[in-house]
Amino acid sequence: MSLSVLEHGVSETPSVNSEFEAADSYHRGCKRREGAKTLDASLASPRYLAISSQSPRAFLLLHTMQSLNGGDLEPTVRIRELKKDRVNFVLENVDLAFANSLRRVMMADIPTVAIDMVVIEINTTVLPDEFIAHRLGMIPLVSSNAEEAIRYNRDCTCPVSCKYCSIDLVLHVACHEGKTMDITSNHLDVIAPNMFDTPDDQGEVGDYGEELTKRVENFGHPVGKGDPSMPPVLICKIRKGQELKLKCIAKKGIAKEHAKWSPCSAVSFEYDPHNKLRHTTYWFENSSKTEWPVSELNGKEEEPERDDEAFDFNAKPNRFYFEVETDGSLGPQEVVMKNSKQNWQT
Ligand SMILES: [Zn+2]
Q1: To which H or E segment does residue 79 belong?
Q2: N or C: which end of the chain has fewer CB within 10 A?
Q3: Alpha-carbon span 170 to 334, nearest angstrom
Q4: Residues spanned by CATH 2.170.120.12 within the chain?
Q5: Which residues surround ligand 1, an ion (CB under 5 A)?
Q6: Distance from the Cα of residue 78 to its chain's centroid
């Protein structure tokens, strides 16, 4: 089996497209839309093998999708819009259960890094320690490739935390001026791990440093730090004479443990925009029409039901319009593609 993962028409955000690399010349059978991005997966000829080997995650995902679908039709993913923190795509030729499982995996099963322990040294702000610790936990941290770049603390042999399973951050802000001051995520500084530490009892023999080499430069930093176009997350407001000094330990986790580890701020999908399957026939509050409103964009993708069209009792939804928005800890392409490796491999 072979497949291709192809994209065309991409112009605005070239930096986030590494997963979708492909050549236009290989593309076939996919309608070009102006300004839209398209990811088409066809499972056809051997000449696509070279491309599939460049994108093993995509291969695995599509392979699984095809086997779940019974192999009747080729599952396709068509990206309609791809931005730095969100992606809109159409998934076709899979069943509703698969589409929903994809949504749930993206929300709760993709590992990221988040602050998990806080040691407060000085807190003379108006907020109690627990309040501040909770707010710190919810700050999104850059978690690219967290799967390989950091260990789960529970899998590590260290007693509490170490550079292989944790990221250390510090914050120390004091207000000396006569006006209100904001303490934000930009005040959090990552303590760089000491690469020359002797391993001692850290990890198993042969494992040393493997994770550290797979980290991006700003791994564990608050999302948007140093980016003037992105407003920081407000932690607390202080006035003259107040001070906050603390140390945080960020760890890897998934959102099944705590929502702070979710890379997504919103994941949704729609199907059957014209309600051809008549979901509201037997249950509605006021009107069966208004309670399944036609969405503007997705309504154009499918033909509305004609008045003389007979109802198909055996029809099943097979086209799903996804909208995935991330909090910045991971890019949308990583969230979508991680599904395959993380959960559909076994
Ligand atoms: Zn450790």
Answers
A1: strand 76-82
A2: C
A3: 28
A4: 112-194+211-257
A5: 156, 158, 162, 165
A6: 18
Contact 320, 269 (CB under 8 A): yes
CA of 115 to the centre of ligand 1 (A): 15
Would you state the structure tokens that stand for residue 319, as one six-digit string?
Answer: 């086209």
In the reported structure, the alpha carbon of residue 211 is separated from the centroid of ligand 1 by a whole-number distance in angstroms of 11
Predicted confidence (pLDDT) per residue in 269-322, tens digit: 999 999 989 888 888 898 888 888 898 899 999 988 888 888 888 999 999 999
CA of 165 to the centre of ligand 1 (A): 4
Fold of 76-108+265-343: Gyrase A; domain 2 (3.30.1360)
Return the bridge partners of 182, or none. Answer: 237
Residues making up the chain, counted from first to last: 346
What is the structure's pLDDT at 67?
Answer: 52
Question: Comparing 208 with 264, which gets the higher pLDDT?
Answer: 264
Residues of the chain with CATH 3.30.1360.10: 76-108+265-343
**Whole-angstrom distance, CA of residue 271 vs CA of residue 315:** 13
240-249 confidence digits (pLDDT tens): 999 999 999 9
* CATH top class, domain 112-194+211-257: mainly beta
